[in-house]
Amino acid sequence: MLLDNEEKAMLDGAHGTAKRKAMELLVKYGNALGAEKLIKTDNVVGTVGMATPFVRDYALKPGGLDAAFSEFNLDSDETIETPEFEAFTCQVIHGIDTEHWEQQGGAKEVADLQKRGEAHFGRRGVNMMGTCTPYQVGNVPVMGQHCAWMESSAVVYCNSVLGARTNTEGRESTGAASVTARIPYWGLHIPENRSATHRIDVEFDVDDMMDWGLLGYWVGHVVQDDIPLLAGVKSQPNMMKLKHFGAAAASSGGVELFHIPGATPEATSIEAITRPGRALATLKYGAKERREAYDMLNAGAHEKKVDFIMLGCPHDSIEQIRRAAQLLDGKHIDPSVQLWIFTPRSIKSVADRSGYTKIIRDAGAWLMSDTCPAIGRVAPKGTKVVATDSAKQSHYLPAILGVEAWFGSIEECVDAALTGRWNGGLK
Amino acid sequence: MSGVILRGRTVVGGVVEGEALVTRETISGWGGMDPRTGTITELRHELRGQSFKDKILVFPGAKGSSAWSHYFHMARLAGAAPKALLFNRMSTKVALGAVVTRAPAMTDFDRDPLDVIKTGDWVKVDADTGRVEILRKKDR
After folding, report:
1. Domains of chain B, CATH where assigned
2. Are residues A391 and A243 in the same domain?
3. What CA–CA distance (Å, rounded) separates B32 from A287?
4. pTM for this one?
5. CB within 8 A of A119, min separation 6: which ones?
6. How many separate domains does chain A show?
7. Tens digits of per-residue pLDDT, B2-25?
């Protein structure tokens, strides 16, 4: 890989051990990819979360926060003092909500460790957003900006809806990017790699949130990690629909970029997002395909008695919280279930001020932040059957928590919370 | 059929021998495997319940969460990582995952390893010279 003088100096240790270790990792990683060079980045979404069991084992030792950062963020066996970060860096969703850990069944020592970690890494430049949706709370890169983001649902949003450029980075590569402000120039950083590979003719009228989730889940399943172009979309999607669509497509497949003429910025025309001479694989999404997606998502669910209802994956927008509050207003959830709704903490403060949090709490449900059942492996004790409006959680929770999961609309999920039973179905 | 040789590109260097575990399905890190044991946990995956610990893992590529590398990183620390990674489709997930797993890894083969290598075959991976040799086919 070609390195510029500053990068060579970092690799030689002229700027300290942390930058040397970080640059060593980026060179190994870039060579593994077959990248020709590194690119400057000043927008990183990574994690210094300390709550998961493996990381905790390192972090709880004396001086352990730096040891955990060295091992898990720089792949360094040697413990290095964590430096001030070069690049603008935001904390992604992580393992524990330090305000609701008790309700989530967490341990005080884990919450305390996480808070210590936030203080330690915060002053080194990690902005503690604590969300899978940094674009909802102030990290909104501009079109063409080179980023280094983790979190598959954020990556696909960053590329597709914002037109910024990032690959799906990991904990170690974002750690190295924060320290050096560099990331391999590969994949979606390169304009030629951003053209569509598949054309999906969307014949079913996809409009509501549930349908955007189903479409995303089906598209990811068929294109895997290729780049779909959605043609024929009749209803203009908004931020929360594209957030749900992308998260679903990144779960059933590995979609990191999609194009929708009329909705996403690079799709100014079909020509702008297709490569001359390359034929697109063309697929149709109709009622049959919609049914397939629904059946895949609900394949593992049989028991109609539900224990746990989860909303807010990816983390809810304020509009979604308002909708939940409307559905719960003046009612109370069934005593046999719990309903947890997840949103970034700064959006929760808007919900607090708007009275939504009180409506949700009065109904017996909780508004939480920072984590989710899948990332934090948190669910009410004894949960066997989950209902969720998230295709992503429905995809992952059976494997992560060993539960059955129903996927449906927010209305069906709130109904399940109020009655204790799943009455949903594809209409 | 033993003695079959594939040539490919080095992702991470190193030389190992071991038993192959082959799947035609892409593999998830977070949410798809248990890093303590290397067992595939993804619902509906053809390897569900099987462990890649100490195996030469032959697979199409990575999918799913950006914590792919972190999960393979943890599997290495738990002693449950694969011995080598042979795959077809390059991605940031699998490249970073291979680097932090610190296991020999290769891609871009002259023949599709999924066609040539079968589960149970004894395989030598020489990622320093970009060579994979099937030393012994599994009796079947």
Report:
1. 4-136 (3.50.30.10)
2. no
3. 29
4. 0.96
5. none
6. 3
7. 689 999 999 999 999 999 999 999
- Say yes or no: B27 contacts chain A, CB-CB below 8 A: no
Would you place residue B1 in the very low, low, confident or very high pLDDT band (cuts 50, 70, 90)? low
Contact state of A254 with B12 under an 8 Å Cβ cutoff:
no
Nearest residue of chain B to residue A171 (CA atoms): B70
**Distance in angstroms between the alpha carbons of the first and the last residue of chain A:** 54
* Partner-chain residue, chosen from B67, B73, B95, that has the shortest CB–CB distance to A32: B95
Mind listing the pLDDT tens digit for each residue in A323-377? 999 999 999 999 999 999 999 999 999 999 999 999 999 999 999 999 999 999 9
State the sign of the Cα–Cα–Cα–Cα dihedral A326, A132, A104, A390.
Answer: positive
Give the minimum alpha-carbon distance from B27 to chain A in angstroms, rounded to a whole number. Answer: 10
- What 8-state DSSP symbol labels residue A34? T
The ipTM of this complex is 0.97
Residue A426 lies in a domain: no
Residues A415 and A384 in one domain: yes
Q: Judge whether A286 lies within some domain.
A: yes
Q: Which domain holds residue A51?
A: 5-189
Taking the Cβ of residue B92 and every Cβ of chain A, the question of whether any pair is shorter than 8 Å is answered with yes
Please confirm, yes or no, whether B65 is among the known catalytic residues.
yes
Do A153 and A21 belong together in one domain?
yes
Same domain flag for A155 and A105: yes
CATH number for the domain spanning A356: value is 3.30.499.10
Angstrom distances, CA of residue A421 to CA of A296, A383, B77, B116: 21, 14, 42, 50
